[in-house]
Amino acid sequence: MLHKNFIAGDWVEGIAVNRNVNPSNLDDVVGEYARASAAQANAAIDAAFAALAGWRNVTIEQRSDMLDRIGSEILARKDELGRLLSREEGKPLADGIGEAVRAGRVFKFFAGEALRPGGDRIPSVRAGVDVEITREPEGVVGLITPWNFPIAIPAWKIAPALAFGNTVVLKPADLVPGSAWALAEIISRAGVPAGVFNLVMGSGREVGDAIVQSPKVRAVSFTGSVEVGRNIAIDCVSRGKKVQLEMGGKNPLIVLDDADFDQAVAVALNGAFFQCGQRCTASSRLIVTDGIHDRFVAALAEKAAALKVGDALSPGTELGPVVSQSQLDQDLGYVEIARSEGGRVVTGGERLNRETAGYYMSPALITETDNAMRINREEVFGPVASVIRVRDYEAAVEVANDTAFGLSSGICTTSLKYASDFKKRSAAGMVLVNLPTAGIDYHAPFGGRKGSSYGPREQGAYAREFYTAVKVAYTLA
């Protein structure tokens, strides 16, 4: 079966076919997915533009009901969707199902937000004048999503866009079209009018550029690499478009001498290695104070080495493969870079062979690093964590903030003083205390500072800032 693009309410063939391959088993083809051309992307944009007026006039209750139906079907099919996700992306099945649940909950949340569009009425400084402040949809919104969360991230962009009256053109990552296609198929049967939601699969160079450059697209939300995100920002700003970027992190986890030891090891293990470290919120820099350093490294290395790496769908698998050969090459390359700069690999960092051919790698823990090394400056995006030894809390905070990124940060401590101080002084957009840096709720705002993020926050009620425009109306009473 060829999985087609969804444009103006119809399923449309593309100009080529993308074979979606299982990274756990390279002999397993998940499916064949149509790749759209730039012309087809523009056709989808035209359809979204034409559908705007009608969608804006749909009542907030109708929008809410549609989003609720989408969320309900995702939740009812969580096992099926989670299996598809794990098969195409490589995260263990429990994580795939958990991500599908998150996507369903996101749509349910924004079904509620659709009923709360917001607005204010305030008195004017002039007698007899009323001031009304309302929010309106931006218009056609282009959504460009990454491969590491192939259903959750599309969901948390699509749901608020539709909830607040925008129309959508979605371009998912080329590596993982299956989850986005399954989501599009659910949306296509939820009563959403033709043209309101469109799916165009294909390359960033063709489909992504068409979305960014079209004068009919009012706003672009992108999650992906720093380099691509910066180019999109330049393109959007030069065209007067609204832009929202999430571009990764080099997230610190501070472990202090007074931390609950077992808890700190568990937090670091989860944050650094789970889902193969392929999370922009992964804690890839472990900043550990002198008094606990050696014991902590030994315990974490033992736990990391014991993680079961295998087929994402196999029972007991704790780490699946990385997503692709190029990602595996990048991850292994950074391990060698760390070695060449003086780092010591205490465990892992090797390609693994399993029963089926796949992109398997043992989780790597690297010690004897400093914050100037490339392994601590650049995002690896794999199961690779480095340890930086510091003398005390003040040195730890200085190192944690010394980065071009600012997405998430964490601290493990039993001290209320240090926990409270770090929440204030961390230069990240999200701070976690005695929790993995990757554990973020779907109803709370998501985003960072510095090189990690640009524009309004994603998720939760704060998503309204990106997907709506403020209008102020003055009336003489």
Automatic annotation (TrEMBL):
Single Gene Ontology MF annotation: aldehyde dehydrogenase [NAD(P)+] activity
Active site annotation, chain numbering: E246
Pfam family, one: Aldedh
Assigned EC number: 1.2.1.5
EC class name: oxidoreductase
Domain annotation Aldehyde dehydrogenase: ranges: 19-472
Keywords: Oxidation, Oxidoreductase
Family to which this protein belongs: Belongs to the aldehyde dehydrogenase family.
Name listed for the protein in its UniProt record: Aldehyde dehydrogenase B
Classification lineage: Bacteria, Pseudomonadati, Pseudomonadota, Alphaproteobacteria, Hyphomicrobiales
